Amino acid sequence: MRTLYVSRQGCWVGVRQECLQVRWQGQVVEEVALPTLEQVMVFGRSQVSVDALRACLCRDVPVAFLSRQGFCYGRLLGIERGYRRLGVRQRQMDEDWRLGIAQRLVWAKVMNGRVLLMRQLRQRPSESGEMTVSSLEYLAEEALRASGLEVLRGIEGAAAGMYFQELGNCLRRPGFVLINRTRRPPTNPVNAMLSFGYMVLWNHVMTVVELQDLDPYEGCLHASGDRHAALVSDLLEPFRASVVDSLVLWLVNKGMMNAEKDFVYADGGCFLNEEGRKKYLQAFVQRMEGKIQTDGGEQPRWDLLTQEVRKFKQCVYDSSCVFEPYRIR
Questions:
Q1: How far is residue 109's CA from residue 147's CA, in Å, rounded to a whole number?
Q2: Which of 66, 72, 213, 256 could pair with 83 as two cysteines, CB 3.0-4.6 Å apart?
């Protein structure tokens, strides 16, 4: 089963026999057989015909409409679709199962951050780099042995402190400094870009979680609650370094962002201004729309998030499955 991503602007999606057709400037640019389709995600300004929508809903294929940056405006679901039944199963999973998932998520998050730092350090070694990389590997293995969530969260916090300090050493432009991670509010341009990028990615993961019929508020690592979609925060963790942190490094070190012109200081924090958001989102969308090979064939990088949610869903259905979070090599 695959996802149809309509990310090129100005497309028209119609149906012909048992296939969805994507047309751009009158030419068919993609065609997908409906029986092989799991979901449709339309980014930005494209049109979907009523016949195509009806065909999808009749086959229980949800259709989501998103901004180009991944923020979901809304979803169309078949009348029988919903995550409540699967959500009941999520809530019935025992604490050992939840801890196992959480351990793997923290392990993957720390290891992905380690790989990103190693790539940077090959180009520009630092005095603390080798020690940080070794420490992160040790903490990642400790995460797999954590006896409970509080211990695991402590390990994650320790790893994050080391990671962000070393990430700051990888920045090579005046005006861009990262000593520690500040969030509410972000206090400097680097933290502002990190917070903004995580928010954009979080919104897309939220969409995918709901389209896969999972309860976004029933998590494993983060505390669940009616006001916090904990599962979304959980499944975002392995992608922080590979998607957002790496993009921030690229934007800064390539001189794409200006510390004085692209940010505004207000309400005790630092935030991207309109021009800064435009630059960031343009680079973000370009990266996420880039085609890569996934389990669903050649798909946009967005599909990595869909694959992650599917793996978690399989573990809910079959508790004997070992959850393998996304890893960069």
A1: 18
A2: 213
